[in-house]
């Protein structure tokens, strides 16, 4: 099977010189002109070539559509790309090819809730939380602190392997240090980015400002500069729309956290907005597994589902106003 980037023209013209195959050996490559499938899905044409030759694919934009290890076209992120489909058999006939227009669609996040957890991983809370999520068969997002990810890489790897999104919450989480300048923030960010990629094998797409956007620890202009810099690198900023209030100086405990979460989630759902719920999985936030389990049971009974942020392809969700 083929892979890589083809030289594909915008007018769908196959520029290769192709000699007409002998009629008896024609692969009869038949494809639709337009194809549509989802992010994370694979696609293979069904045609009359079966048994006559070998299919291969090439794509004009591997950020949108790539060729996976099985040789199939694979949706990477929403967008449009051209692809060339070939069928050939060496020595039997000349290859035949066609160019198709592919649309990759984002997952449908209607009736979805995003659970997000900051400040981990921790040795005591995060594994229990992962057990709870696994028991309920749902996925969440972990905004990790690099210095703790360095201490517990196996926990981060477990979360990733079990389908959760791993996102950046800086390396030190030291407000005075990271917000001292844009350069200081980016340097800290890059260290966390490299560590997550080393642990999981995948570069993250999301990050969250410590303290949230517009937090008062850095000037508005500096936070906008950080936001613009990371947006230009393909990152999406993610604050929250629902708070469990578990970052308060007096830790509220499971019952209050659950009440605050349900109040906020219900408000978001009533407004037609997708809830992004903030909780924490640091070592002192011991109620996170219980609250997460209760939220999942309650809202799944109402017909909602819980997703990781890797299913989100929208704009920044941030408190920062430009």
- Residues in helix, %: 25-40%
Largest sheet: 6 strands, parallel
- What form results from the Cα inertia axes? globular
Q: Helical region count?
A: 8
Helix-strand pattern, N to C?
EEEEEEEEHEHHEHHEHEEHEHE
How far from one another are the termini? 47 Å
- The whole-angstrom Rg is 24 Å
What is the structural class? alpha/beta
Q: Give the low-pLDDT segments.
A: 1-7, 9-18, 20-24
Kindly state the number of beta strands: 15
Walkthrough of the structure:
The chain has 322 residues and is α/β, with parallel strands linked by helices. Helices cover 29% and strands 22% of the residues. Strands 8, 9, 10, 13, 14 and 15 form a six-stranded parallel sheet that branches. A four-stranded mixed sheet has the order 1-7-6-3, with no helix packed on it. Strands 2-5-4 form a three-stranded antiparallel sheet, with no helix packed on it. Strand 6 and strand 7 (93-105) form a beta hairpin. Helix 7 (254-270) packs parallel to helix 8. The longest helix is centred in the middle third of the chain and has 19 residues, at 182-200. The radius of gyration is 24 Å and the shape is globular. It starts with 33 loop residues before the first strand and ends in a 15-residue tail after the last strand.
Which tags fit this structure?
322 residues, 29% helix, four-stranded mixed sheet, alpha/beta, disordered N terminus
Task: Briefly characterize the structure.
The chain is of the alpha/beta class and 322 residues long. It is built from eight helices and 15 strands. The strands form four sheets. Strands 8, 9, 10, 13, 14 and 15 form a six-stranded parallel sheet that branches.
